[in-house]
Amino acid sequence: MDTPVVDLASRVEMMDRRQAERRRLLRWMLVGTATLPLIGCGGASDATAPASALEAADVTESAGACAVIREEMAGPYPADGSNTYAGSIINVLNQPGIVRSDIRSSFNGGTAVATGVPLSIRLQLLNAGAGCASLAGYAIYIWHCDREGRYSLYSSALAGQNYLRGLQETDADGMLAFTTIFPACQPGSMPHVHLEIYPSLVQAASGSNRIKTSHFTFPRAPLQQIYAASGYQASVANLAQLGDSSGSIGPASSLQTARLTGNAADGYVATLRIAING
Q1: What 3-state DSSP class applies to 198?
Q2: Strand residues in 133-242 grouped as ranges (E)
Q3: DSSP 8-state symbol, 220
Q4: Which ranges of the chain would DSSP assign to H, the alpha helix?
Q5: The whole model's pTM is what?
Q6: What region, left, alpha or beta, does residue 236 occupy, with left being phi > 0 and alpha being psi -120 to 50 degrees?
Q7: What CA–CA distance (Å, rounded) separates 270 from 122?
Q8: How many CB atoms lie within 10 A of CB 146?
Q9: What is the mean pLDDT of the chain?
Q10: If residue 34 lies in a helix (H) or strand (E), which one and from where to where?
Q11: Between the CA of residue 30 and those of 46, 123, 213, what are the distances in Å?
Q12: Angle at Cα 82 formed by Cα 89 and Cα 67, nearest 5°?
């Protein structure tokens, strides 16, 4: 078989295309967010990133400086087959329709739709044990409460509904995104999103196959503005009661605090890079 000849001009063009794609992916993670930290993943700043942040991110990834996100309890409402409600095992992971990006509506027979301040969640999964390489083909399941603080499938009013739950596979760059609404601030804890990480979509059919359980929260500064929106009245009081403490779930680590940008009218974008030992 003949080997195709690639001249110098073609090679330069290929390199330019790769570099452009690299910048595009970095911008995806950095749009409207702060400069990526030089050590670790996560971070809570909501300042706009300067152009130099792209080069800083390149250096950070090359250095392989990222730390593993902390293991956490799944809490009482995972719906991953690990617990029961009203005497029945609840496992939303084996239901048709769970693999999706927009998690605001119920599926597989459910009709309820969660309303609230729009939120886009953008995650990137990295391998802390291999120089922060992107982890492609893994699966991330997320779930969180609605603006009233209720969890689908477990609240008596939502027993037949399964909104604000979704599963996706990471792409070639370890990335995925969910469209949802901003969760309520429940009594005693900062607003948060739970997550489970699986080696693949196939293995994500049961919580017993998860390789990491954690959660992330948000910077506190914008929360008062967010909770001024209709339907979040209880969150205003719950946030005020936390005072300076973070409660049972709070921003204990930058690794578990998503960057948050946007506004209540147009919605918010939460961005987080998550490292595990892949």
Answers
A1: strand
A2: 133-134, 139-143, 165-169, 175-181, 192-198, 212-217
A3: S
A4: 8-30, 52-63, 223-226, 233-242
A5: 0.79
A6: alpha
A7: 6
A8: 24
A9: 81
A10: none
A11: 11, 11, 25
A12: 155
DSSP letter at 23 equals H
Q: Which residues pair with 37 in a beta bridge?
A: none
Residues 167-184, buried b or exposed e (16+ Cβ, 10 A)? bbbbeebbbbbbebbbbb
- Cα gap 151→83, rounded to integer Å: 14
Radius of gyration of the chain (CA): 20
Q: What does the alpha-carbon distance between residue 196 and residue 180 come to, in Å, rounded to a whole number?
A: 17
The first and second tokens of residue 122, run together, are 């953008």
pLDDT tens for each residue of 159-218 = 899 999 999 999 999 999 999 999 999 999 999 999 999 999 999 999 999 999 999 999
Residues 6 or more apart from 228 whose CB is under 8 A from it?
236, 264
Q: Is 145 left (phi over 0), alpha (psi -120 to 50) or beta?
A: beta
Measure the CA–CA gap between 92 and 105, rounded to whole angstroms: 14
102-123: pLDDT as tens digits: 999 999 999 999 999 999 999 9
For residue 91, what are the CA distances in angstroms to 3, 54, 55, 161, 198? 52, 41, 43, 13, 15
In order of 4, 141, 158, 160, 237, the CA distances from 94 in angstroms are 47, 12, 19, 16, 37
| CA–centroid distance for 30 within its chain | 14
In sequence order, which residues have a C-beta less than 8 Å from that of residue 60 and are 6 or more positions away?
Answer: 36, 37, 38, 132
Rounded distance, CA 214 to CA 71, Å?
5
